[in-house]
Specification:
This protein is an all-alpha fold. Helix content is about 75%, strand content about 0%. It starts with about 20 loop residues before the first helix and ends with a helix.
Length: about 325
Amino acid sequence: MARPGHNVCSDLPVLADGAFGCAERVRVALANDLTLLQEGGLFQTNREPRGMLLRYSVLPGFGLTLGLALTWLSLIVLIPLSALAIHASGLGWSGFWHEVLTPRVLAAFQVSFTTALAAALINVVFGLLVAWVLVRYRFPGQKLVDALVDLPFALPTAVAGIALTSLYATNGWIGSILAEWGIRVAFTPLGIVVALTFIGLPFVVRTVEPVLQDLPPEEEEAALSLGASRWQTFTRVILPALTPALLTGFALAFARGLGEYGSVIFIAGNMPGISEIVPLLIIIKLEQFNYHGATAIGTLMLMLSFVLLLVINLLQAWMRARHVHH
């Protein structure tokens, strides 16, 4: 501790440049002492992760923001879903399985999951193609095409369903042409796939597009300089970098397809066992005042969707870690 009236600067080493004043000499001395403490392990500016905690941040407000985030998530997501499960538990296990294992319910689950899966896979292929064109090329009307990608977000789903039905019905513009080839779209499961593809395409495009924009061109140029063909460059350089984003877009499109209602009911035909989806069956149960049956079907849909999305997210994390490691 400095004595009263003692000049601290007199105890500090003189810097190489004598033009520096006392304040600058104090700053340099403190910086040197801090470096020595860090090298000795006595002081750390960043705390390493401990357990499940993330790296410490110097910015304040972590506790407050974490509490607000968990509270908001509980109010919007956890509490309503918990209420759904609690209401369904009133049936007991025997009553629950009796409600969800009927042939009509199983058929509705099969239609919902198969059509949502097919639409999500189609969107992965064509969503990547659309994102590629928007990022890698410049052409007249590009802004218009880019705006059209987001149209399913803004368009009411019921309006989309009516429009698609009028186009793909046997007397519609597209449906009449397909009918000559013996292909029926409207009022069949194929119509459901068309509707889910329409509403799910923006999820894949908007997920892949920023990743494609940030890809460094040096990797592609290096592959070409080493003699790789365009197909080899795409499959071995570009596609592995895009795979996590493609899985994210697939998961979003698949999840949206599972819960879609408005655009499907007009084009599906809603025939039990053929083109009836789970959301429509839940509405029918509610209209029949069978609330326990509706909550049981909703709970099973929730559990299956959660498991599938969890598997997809784990696969996405593994693919991202593998790409970073290589």
